[in-house]
Amino acid sequence: MKKLLILLTVLLVLGTACKKSFLNVDETNPNSASAVPPNLVLPAALNTTARIITAPGNFNFIYLWYGCWSISGGYSQPANLTQYNLLNSSYQGNWDNLYLMLKKVQIVLNQRLTKLFQ
For residues 38 and 116, what is the distance between their CA atoms, to the nearest angstrom? Predict the structure, then answer.
């Protein structure tokens, strides 16, 4: 009887052991989105566009070059704007944000076209 009890205990312990995949670290994260629906990407792209275009100071050089602003006697404009000398780093943040916005619009277009041609 004692041997039978030990055998049943061992079988019970082995039968209820952990699964082999318990410590598997190669599983995908369920919290990270693999694809975002276009109805969530498009408003973000439109918001970025509106924020860049309407923010004061983003396109100061255009206002000065087109004559919307004038240089008064008591105020000096930045030399690079009055001499039409923009550097590669001038307004770099605007260009980066515009390209990111265009990437979002491209994602929306690609998803819409794949749904259209399926």
Answer: 13
Query: What's the token pair of residue 80?
Result: 């690079």
Quick check: 61 and 87 in contact, CB under 8 A? no
- Distance (Å, whole) CA 26 – CA 30: 12
What is the pTM for the complete model shown? Answer: 0.56
- The pair of three-digit structure tokens given for residue 117, joined into one six-digit string: 């041609």
pLDDT digits (tens, 9 = 90+) for 6-65: 877 877 776 666 666 666 666 777 777 677 788 888 898 889 889 888 887 787 778 778
Q: At what angle do helices 38-54 and 92-116 cross, to 10 degrees?
A: 150
Cα–Cα nearest to 81, from 57, 51, 50, 54 = 57
Kindly tell me the burial class for residue 27, based on how many C-beta atoms sit within 10 Å of its own C-beta (0-12, 13-18, 19 or more).
Answer: exposed
